[in-house]
Amino acid sequence: MYKKYKDLLSKRADIKGAIALLSWDQEVFMPREGASFRAKQLATLSGIAHEMFTSQQTGELLEQLIHDRLLSSDELKNVKETMNEFSKSRKLSKEFVEKRSETISDAFQNWLKARSFNDFKTFLPSLEKLVDIKRKEAELIGFDEHPYDALLDEYEPDEKTSNISKVFEDLRQKLPPLLKAIKDMPQVEDRFLKKKYDKDKQWEFGLYLLKQMGYDFDAGRQDISEHPFTITFNPLDVRVTTRINENDFNNMTFSCIHEGGHALYEQGIPSSNYGLPSGESISLGVHESQSRLWENNIGRSLPYWKANYGKLQNIFPTNLGHVTLQEFYRAINKVQSSLIRTEADELTYHFHIMIRFEIEKMLIEGTLEAKDARDMWNDLYDKYLGVKVPDDKNGILQDIHWSHGSFGYFPTYSLGSFYAAQFHEKAKEEISDLQLEITSGNLTPLLTWLREKIHRHGKLYKASELCQMVTGEPLNLDYFMRYAEKKYMKIYGFKKM
Description:
Blueprint: H1 2-28, H2 35-53, H3 56-66, H4 73-89, H5 94-117, H6 120-141, H7 147-155, H8 161-183, H9 199-213, E1 222-224, E2 230-234, E3 237-242, H10 249-267, H11 284-298, H12 302-315, H13 317-320, H14 325-332, H15 349-365, H16 373-385, H17 411-430, H18 434-439, H19 444-453, H20 463-471, H21 477-492
Parallel strand pairs: 1-3
Antiparallel strand pairs: 2-3
Helix pairs in contact: 1-2, 1-3, 2-5, 3-4, 5-6, 6-7, 8-21, 9-10, 10-11, 11-17, 15-16, 17-21
């Protein structure tokens, strides 16, 4: 009986893998004229996968398995997790799933067009449709407290909008004093990062960093896309994309490290669990903990660049030959309010997330309409970050997520940073001489620890349970704040707060 269950989920994973492959191609290689047919293909496959998973036969199989006393604890966890997903999925019709898929495909193409025109109005009709369909989805799935809970649950299971609001309120109290202390000190120099960095040399350096992290290119590849992302078809085919700005060294380098962190997680999930919940990531918050840990706690650390800066100087001697390691380290950690989320420093970054969270919440609850989203966006950037948004491409059109229908995703970026700080602190306790290993360019001990503590479990535990298992306590914002205060006190030279 359990084998029949595994076979069913494996077939479903095959279809989802085909959907993912078509989606990857849509963002990387597909000619624009193919958009309408691709939207239909994706909708058809989404409908097939949904219909197969929500069939009466699937329900009967799960009902039998849930009472099977011969199942191991892990097998029973898989069945219970699948039953939970089955119950939610049954609330959505095949027609709704197909319409949602086609709406998202069309929205992605309109987002690309709107970005090229630098015009929010071009994307607005798609955004209105997306908001309508996401409101309907929340209504169909159901919720206890807030309609946004139903969408948040897809990315961060069992999380509540009210709790996310409390986390951000706590951050709004704790982060500003640190930002003020930084602002009161002389700003670091980073103009050398804005010189011209040849795209091909950047590309090769990015590949080098990915290999050093442990990313397996025999089970993945890197390409260029409008917005960097990671996508998995199975643990042996996990792909990343990046983008290159020849006048901004940070752009590609830290995108590579960030997406590499996501990819290492996916490559670390046991392939024997393909299709099962134990073969999937726990939550997007934990997923983002992996990308943010590698990008910030490791990739923006001094030990990391002690290992890599000499090579970088040799690649770009004109730009960096006269720049010391300390000057470079301080520059890549410059704290300053900015327009673009993906290029923001690791502190002001969280205000970018708060802005998106507040807008999404209002859109889904109906207190904000899509036509007013741009004005709200611009107002909140002025309020939280003190920056004026000059145009749509650098404002409301900068992120790909809404065109993907990913409402409920953004809070996981901040949760990921907080998990990352807590996991990193535990890793330093348990891995002897971790900082020395990183300084020597040996990242294997850290990857091995992450594989053992996080990656191998798949979705057998909830995010909160995993955090307790790994660190001995629930998610605690104080780890992030202590990490940030210690790091930036040294970079900016202010006294202990």
